[in-house]
Amino acid sequence: MNRYSIFTLARNALTFHKGWQKAWRSPEPKSEYDVVIVGAGGHGLATAYYLAKEHGVTNVAILDKGWLGGGNTGRNTTIIRSNYLQPESIAIYELSRSLYEGLSQELNFNIMFSPRGLLNLCLTEHELRVFKRIVHANRIAGLDTQFLSREEVKGLVPLINDSPDARYPLLGALYQPRGGTARHDAIAWGYARGADALGVDVIQNCAVTGISRRGGSVTGVDTTRGKIKAKKVAVVAAGHTSVIMDMAGVRMPLESVALQAMVSEPVKPMLDVVVMAGAVHGYVSQSDKGELVIGGGADACNNYSQRGSIPALEHTATALLELFPAFSRMRMLRQWGGIVDMSADRSPVIGETDVKGLYVNCGWGTGGFKAIPGSGFVFADSIANDRPHPIAEPFGLNRFLEGRMVDESTAAAVAH
Ligand code: FAD
Ligand code: PYC
Q: Beta-carbon neighbour count of residue 146 at 10 Å?
């Protein structure tokens, strides 16, 4: 117990917990800021934190239409890995994964990072070839990923179905020993508290309804709590990016689609690695509480429906049962959906736009939780210095005009 003693605990218990210090303030919006960030998910909050911490830019507001972390950041299945194919992607996802390693200390907030190891199963000959190629690409970049045989996978996951008669027999796996999970809410809360302590205004229940421009430059935002002027505006709103960028007249190369997940009742520890199986559209990890955290492929059609559905539940459960027949009697507790933003090459968009002072960070699709610290770090640097950070540079919006795709359709690992 660092900031509070046992006496503080006892005093607050006796006064019905009215005396606790809030983790962050709830300020009224000021009329003007140097930077306004739209969207208090993990990426927006990390950007605000690193703007203040690394660049001394503290006259910053971060606005959210709901509560902070209430979008995909609080709805994802928390898988962290950096085993991508292209060097540009490996650079940003590994920066992020390595920042996760020290994030509890950095934020003085336990984010429960658990590098328990992660398996991407090979269930088809195609996956076998692609994942072997990824191992080579990762090793060239200095990452410790390995290719495991079927027997080695069975050794790590005794419950897995390794029968040669399975519909898609297990052939091996791509293994990242330092991949894993973290507590999603804690990422949002830790960055929010850190940013607030450095002077950033975290403003919830404040929806952006318009973006003001004068000529070719951004001048501020319209919100449900009034107009706010800003020298720079950074849009970090995941599945709603296209809607917000449209307010500034910028058309985004994105599609919005629901991705669903569910958790089971808690059971005894039985799975201590993360298992992903793209071919059958299913993945699973076991939380510290004992629940199985389960997800599948994205919804087939574009939509803004932030909820679960029976067809997705059935499809994902079917995939899981093929891999783990022993799960057949587990009861599911909750199911939900989040709206993710897919780019054509399944890679993010980070950087400036044609409107001076208007920045965007989006397109993380089904896989942006793992990228939060790295994305925030390089985006803050790009905004503060008015030029792309070298790791962000390949992910500029202009790559779609210039045909410089960073194709991660396979390593994105979730069916879509
Ligand atoms: P969000 O957290 O969605 O934040 C955007 C914010 O913008 C929201 O809080 C929203 O309220 C706000 N906003 C929107 N419109 C407005 C407006 N007009 N005004 C003000 N605010 C606005 N990634 C992984 O790496 N690993 C995983 O295991 C994983 N699993 C997933 C499972 C599911 C079911 C889902 C849905 C996603 C998963 N992802 C995963 C993807 C990951 O969750 C996202 O890529 C990531 O959280 C995006 O973070 P963000 O900060 O960009 O967006
Ligand atoms: O990107 O690794 C990922 C992921 C896992 C589950 C959803 N996305």
A: 15
